[in-house]
Amino acid sequence: MLINYVVLANDSNIPGDIFKTLFAIFSFFIILILAYYTSKFIASNGRKLNNGRNMEIIDILNLGNNKRIMMVKIIDKIYILGSNNSGFNMIDTIEDETTIKKIIDPQEDKPGFENFLKDKLTSFNKNKQSEYKDNLNDLDYNKIDSLKKRIEYLKENHVFARKKDETK
């Protein structure tokens, strides 16, 4: 039994097996990367091919098996269509130019992160300033006067004055 094991160990090519395994793993990852970029390329070109000169699919919302809602721009109007196994149904038409511009270019309405952050910081600073003003309004001026008098008394009695020997 031990002799058979030694013979099998001598017949195997361990460095060659490791190389074959690493090559198979490397090939697998190369195929995955190629599949990813190929599907991305097909998706981007497929959208361009589906649009005609006067028609453009703006958005599609899938609702389930063969059920979807589509927004299609035809010349100067946007049509909202519903589709299922039995065909297409027109749900609505959008003719207002400002609404069409908002639908086609939604980025113009959205504030950027920088503007969002500035708005939040200014509102935070306004809240802090209003808190500070509220705290100033809540001050008791009688207490302030008594503290001032006490500080003057301590100064007059040389409580704050230090001698040279005390500083060392």
Automatic annotation (TrEMBL):
Tree of life domain: Bacteria
Transmembrane residues, as ranges?
A: 18-38
Where does the record place it? Cell membrane; Bacterial flagellum basal body
User: What GO terms fall under cellular component here?
Assistant: bacterial-type flagellum basal body; plasma membrane
Q: What is the lineage of its organism?
A: Bacteria, Bacillati, Bacillota, Tissierellia, Tissierellales
- Write the record's keywords in alphabetical order, separated by commas: Bacterial flagellum, Cell membrane, Cell projection, Cilium, Flagellum, Membrane, Transmembrane, Transmembrane helix
Protein name listed in UniProt: Flagellar protein
Member of which family?
Answer: Belongs to the FliO/MopB family.
The UniProt entry, under Pfam families, shows: FliO
A Gene Ontology BP annotation from the UniProt entry: bacterial-type flagellum organization
Q: Which InterPro entries match?
A: Flagellar_biosynth_FliO
Keyword Transmembrane found: yes
Which coarse location class describes where this protein primarily resides?
A: membrane
Answer yes or no on keyword Cell membrane. Answer: yes
